[in-house]
Amino acid sequence: MSIHKREQLSLEAIRKLPIVGPQAESEKEEEFLREICEYEFQNLEEPGLIHRFPYGNSHKSHTFTFLHGSKYQVPRFIARHIESCSTPIWDWRPNGMGGLEKKFQGTKPRFQMRQVFSRG
Q: What share of the chain is helix, strand, coil (3-state, %, to 5)?
């Protein structure tokens, strides 16, 4: 579990948080996204530092705090949300009229959630 400011939510309460972003298209997919798995958190943008973020909507939300290199049990939709955080990469090129043109090149991931599998 992560470190929390106010209260420690149970895994079942975290599992019941609303899914933010792309919604599941079937009951099986929603069940898959709500499955609790163990992940190792990696802060790729600022290695070694913690990442604190609120997750949910205005009715049900929770603030998570993840430490670089630590392991956490969270549902797959939380891991998907963290991994979707990225920084855009832009390329600036001369446009032929004395100015620069901004062109989107791709994205750079900020965080990584590696699923941990136990032996045995």
A: 15, 40, 40
